[in-house]
Amino acid sequence: MNANVFAALRAAFPADLDAVAIECADGHGLSYSWRDIARASAMMANLLASLDLPPGSRVAVQTEKSVEALMLYLAVLRAGYVFLPLNTAYQAAEIEYFIANAEPAVVVCAGKNFGWVSKIAFQAGTQNVFTLNEDRTGTLLDRAAAMSDQHQPASKRADELAAILYTSGTTGRSKGAMLSHGNLLSNAQTLKDYWGWRTREEGGDVLIHALPIFHVHGLFVASHGALLNGSKMIWFSKFEPRAVIARFAEATVFMGVPTLYVRMLGEAALTKAACKTMRLFIAGSAPLLLETFKDWQSRTGHTILERYGMSETVMLTSNPYRAEDGDRLGGTVGFALPGVGVRVRDDQGSDCGPEEIGNIEVSGPNVFSGYWRMPEKTKEEFTADGWFKTGDVGKRDARGYYAIVGRSKDLIISGGYNVYPAEIEGYINEMAGVAESAVIGLPHPDFGEGAVAVVVAKPGAALDGEAIIAALKGKIANFKIPKKVFVVAELPRNTMGKVLKNQLREQHKTLFA
Ligand code: MCA
Ligand code: AMP
After folding, report:
1. pTM summary value
2. Which residues neighbour 119 within 8 Å (Cβ) at sequence distance 6 or greater?
């Protein structure tokens, strides 16, 4: 049997291929039928096939969110190559690293970035660089337009690579998590059932898609969810709280990181009436504050379903959808998904009892096979008996609900994006006059956590926090840039010389309050 994710999604398209599959909320009423998706992905897949790429070739994509960008993702799967999505915020140094590490055969970028991206790509040996713009122009579509709209999806085994997602992981530089067709499809099928996606006979579902499509949440959980159910999507290329609320009346499912919920709660238009056709609100990628969970309940009458996952594993746990399976509990991430193994262990590797806090380890058909070209790192991140160490710290209660209480990895999650302190400290430490720095995450009302840097000057050097921020702009993705930089005489350390980040976090905890 063909385990190609695209083949499974294609099989779920409704019989009426002229029905609307994706309606753009911000594209002057533009809509795409299921036939459009089938044809355009075939044309792009034929374009890729015409390039004579070696098997397993990576196709790296850094473009603004568009339906064509989603079709490109589908085309890469369809043609049997490996999709490598890149955050649009990444700057030259970041892109250089990903391209050098992944050695993609094809790079697709925004036309406005072609100059610098193509230079990096060609230097790294990439032979094909195409452009794709938000307004449906660019060389990718120009070239694909000449291709046949018929294409037989490549035959793939479940263990063959479908995508590489770069993630900061627990330590070191960004690592490419290798996800197979089986990882993605098994998870999508589990979620289809667990979240009760409604068949057409049951009235169908309509998903509001307002997340970026270069991460697990928007690309896999949201898009696969709708496509595997043959459900229409209302497509926002950028999240706008008021505009999203205005479309709830035509939709049934919404997925977002906590920041999206916080921002919608700030809108007077968010009422029970506005949400009356909605069936399900799902949150994840970062901890959802109990306050947000409760406010949403009282304002809309809906209980948010919080779930937990990672780039390396897709979705791991979920609060129940069906009332008979239990309540959706705020402050928890619910139960292990069917078929997914989740355990909590202490530092010695013994199982923790109910309510005991420990390290979360996971296994299952959704768990990735390893990091791209990093066998040693991969080995470190798995236990001897093959469970993946998430780097999250949590507990399980007697009923089986998991709660994430912290992270053993030094990671900040800001508005659903990962900020890896060691990376930012590296950039700051190489600036003139800097002796050392510590980057920490502080509670932030909008982003959940906001990054802040605490910097020590070299003897005799005068440093200015604002100048450090200005120097980082344009160098690294904007969401990674500390919102504030403190210049101090020294960093607090323990007797072993380790910087006491907890102490810094405590000292500055009300900065964004
Ligand atoms: C934007 N800014 C941010 C962030 N986003 N700062 C910190 N954290 C952020 N997340 C800053 C920019 O640097 C800029 O600063 C200013 O805010 C405005 O930028 P803009 O792009 O206009 O912001 P926005 O459009 O309001 O974006 C906020 C957002 C976005 C909509 C919340 O961050 C977002 O879409 N987040 C979702 C991320 C996501 O999908 N994560 C899923 C990962 P300045 O003006 O100073 O330059 S998948 C995952 O984690 C796992 C596996 C899972 O479980 O799902
Ligand atoms: P990423 O590296 O982008 O895949 O982010 C994965 C990390 O996001 C996990 O290891 C968790 O730390 C965090 N995460 C995802 N969902 C949740 C959630 N519902 N609650 C708390 N943390 C979460």
Report:
1. 0.97
2. none
